[in-house]
Amino acid sequence: MTRTAAGTRKRRSPRGLLSGLFGFALLAALSSVCSQAQSPTTPTFRTLEFFVDLGSVEAELAAYQFEFVESAQSAVVVGIEAGRDFPETPYYDPKALRGSRVIVAAYTLAAESTRGKCHVATLHLMETSADPKYQVDLIVAANAEGTPTTATISWTEGQ
Question: 78 near 124, Cβ under 8 Å?
Fold first, then answer.
């Protein structure tokens, strides 16, 4: 309803109301399309393969634990699987996948432990920008007796 010059109320026609609603809906749709066009790039998926290197073929690896951090808040871990040399899925906190930090660990009781450079885990990531910043720290590597051993950790992009 609107007021006329004499101060009386005049009813709007349904046609005017419908055209106003149509205009509002059109404006909302256009702003949605524009905001989608300005959104970040389409997410990409990447796999990273992690290797623990004991530095010697004689040294054996029966357990490991490492911390993976994405410090730029531009990637999310969406899955973790076993490496070729540790066939069981590593342990991790599934709630940690929602954040930018996850601790991954595994052990084996097999009679023959792996030796040398071992593929221990594969992480699947969803990246939302072109410049993620990854950091990985080996917390511990141990032999079958549970004795910590000197080792390094590295990663490569998987297939």
Answer: yes
Do residues 49 and 134 lie in contact, with contact meaning Cβ atoms separated by under 8 Å?
A: no
pLDDT of residue 59: 80
Q: Could you give the CA distance from residue 88 to residue 11 in angstroms, rounded to a whole number?
A: 74
- Res. 104 pLDDT band, cuts 50 70 90: very high
In this predicted model, what pLDDT tens digit does every residue of 41-63 receive, in sequence order? 788 899 999 999 998 777 889 99
Q: How far apart are CA 107 and CA 115, in angstroms?
A: 14
> Do the Cβ atoms of 117 and 152 come closer than 8 Å?
no
Tokens representing 22? 């149509």
Burial class (CB in 10 A: 0-12, 13-18, 19+), 86: buried
- Residues 6+ away with beta carbon under 8 Å from 95: none
Q: How many CB atoms lie within 10 A of CB 77?
A: 21
Please return the burial class of 76, using the count of CB atoms within 10 Å of its CB with bins 0-12, 13-18 and 19+. Answer: middle
Is residue 121 within 8 Å of 105, Cβ to Cβ? Answer: no
